[in-house]
Specification:
The chain is an alpha+beta fold and 415 residues long. It folds into four domains: 1-71; 85-170, no CATH class; 174-305, 2-Layer Sandwich (Tetrahydropterin Synthase, Chain A); 328-413, no CATH class. The chain has 14 helices and eight strands. It has helices spanning 2-38, 48-71, 82-94, 97-106, 116-119, 124-129, 217-228, 238-254, 259-263, 272-289, 307-365, 370-387, 389-394, 397-413; strands spanning 131-134, 138-144, 147-152, 155-158, 163-170, 174-183, 189-200, 293-300. The strands form three sheets. The protein has a three-stranded antiparallel β-sheet. A three-stranded antiparallel β-sheet has the order 6-7-8, covered by helices on one side. A hairpin with a 5-residue loop joins strand 6 and strand 7. The chain starts with a helix and ends with a helix.
């Protein structure tokens, strides 16, 4: 606000100076004409109007020659139209009366050079001459009345009498960081920050390498549209409109996921936020294309939760972890029991097979009674099993005790 008041004061002083200079110029011409009117020649004949005409012609000729010399330095010398455009800038500026005369003959009013918002970003030349040089990283949106007229810049820009600078557009890359508060699908409040980098759409094929930012001219129209589009969300610049668009799309996207889904990882060890970022970037790219704005990059911060939610998640995690540890321990005990039962079964099969082999051998020899042969075979198999460390290592304590008792019984009833 203070800068705007200061600019208005400077404009008022400039207008006073221009009016004073114009009065001095025409006042001096009138004085010269009046003096020449009363002068006499060598023979005493008064010059009258012829003398006034001659002096005025010399006065205007001298002023014109000096003006033509100065106007060539107003604009860059290497520009083919620097002299002509410099003259067009100098005459209306130094002689405001010419603007009034032109408006009478052309039946059109002279529009203000720029809107109040655009004045802050324009050089003083636009406000005084309706022309100036736009920096290489800027372009301007011009309106005629209330309608969009054209885009202009960078470089030297001269406004038509009915044109006004509506917006000054920064063509460089813009970076915005927006803190977004949203709600997950399971009703938990979450907060995270999104950072985006965007830019006014650039021309893909441009044959002038000296142009730093070859923007698409239609993009300036859409930027001006966003700047003047009234919404209930507030905001005063086109970049702020984009921030609101980003926030609404991110809130919508986050509402599709539960809190557990946002923290889990997929089969490729990619966090869910990576998928959210990819989907959001795709949506934002499509949304910005209609306004000729290029979305370059999107970054998402970590999800932040309220303290009570964090404590609750820690408690749940600890309970799940304790349960998992207990399940793993029970699983190991079960596996060990299965392994021992299998080993005991194998040992029993080996003992039985050994007994059967011994019985078969005794029966083939025919020298011993079958009952005695069976008893002897069982006793030998039991002794061999008891002496085998491998067998005893896999038997449980109860089985080992039973084996020793069986051997003792066989000894008591043996032949």
């Amino acid at each position: 606000m203070a800068r705007r008041r200061s600019r208005k004061r400077r404009q008022k002083k400039t207008t006073i100076k221009k009016g004073l200079g114009e009065a001095i110029f025409f006042g001096l011409a009138f004085i010269l004409a009046l003096v020449a009117f009363f002068l006499n020649d060598y023979y005493g004949i008064q010059f009258r109007f012829s003398g006034s005409y001659i002096w005025l012609a010399a006065y205007f000729f001298a002023f014109g020659g000096y003006l033509f010399y100065l106007v060539q330095f107003i604009l860059p010398l290497n520009w083919s139209q620097s002299w002509y455009q410099g003259l067009r800038l100098s005459l209306p500026y130094n002689f405001p009366i010419l603007n009034h005369i032109a408006s009478l003959f052309l039946s059109r009013t002279r529009a203000p050079a720029a809107t109040e918002d655009a004045q802050e970003s324009l050089s003083q030349g636009f406000l005084t001459h309706k022309a100036g040089v736009i920096p290489s990283h800027q372009a301007v949106a011009l309106i005629s009345g209330s309608q969009y007229s054209r885009s202009a810049g960078p470089g030297f820009v001269r406004l038509n009498p009915s044109e006004t600078v509506a917006q000054v557009v920064n063509l460089r890359r813009h970076m915005r960081r927006v803190n977004v508060k949203a709600m997950s699908s399971d009703g938990i409040p979450i907060e995270l920050a999104i950072t985006i980098i965007f830019q006014v759409k650039q021309e893909d094929l441009f044959e002038e390498p000296e142009v730093v930012y070859p923007y698409d001219t239609s993009a300036i129209f859409w930027v001006n549209y966003l700047e003047n589009f009234e919404t209930d969300q507030g905001g005063t610049t086109w970049s702020e409109r984009i921030e609101h668009e980003i926030e609404s799309l991110l809130v919508e996207e986050l509402s599709r996921y539960s809190l557990d889904q946002l923290f889990q990882q997929d089969q490729n060890s990619a966090p869910s936020l990576t998928r959210v970022r990819a989907r959001l970037q795709n949506k934002l790219t499509n949304a910005f294309l209609q306004y000729d704005i290029s979305l370059l990059q999107v970054f998402l911060s970590k999800v932040e939760l309220p303290d009570e939610i964090v404590e609750q998640r820690i408690s749940v995690w600890q309970a799940d972890r304790h349960k998992q540890v207990e399940q793993d321990a029970m699983k190991e005990v079960f596996i060990e029991e299965q392994r021992r039962d299998l080993a005991e079964t194998v040992v029993q099969v080996e003992i039985i097979q050994r007994i059967l082999d011994d019985i078969e051998a005794v029966r083939d020899s025919g020298g011993t009674d079958l009952a005695d042969a069976v008893l002897i075979s069982v006793a030998e198999a039991m002794k061999t099993a008891a002496a085998d460390e491998r067998v005893m290592s896999v038997l449980s304590e109860e089985t080992e005790v039973e084996l020793q008792q069986t051997i003792s019984t066989i000894k008591l009833i043996g032949p």
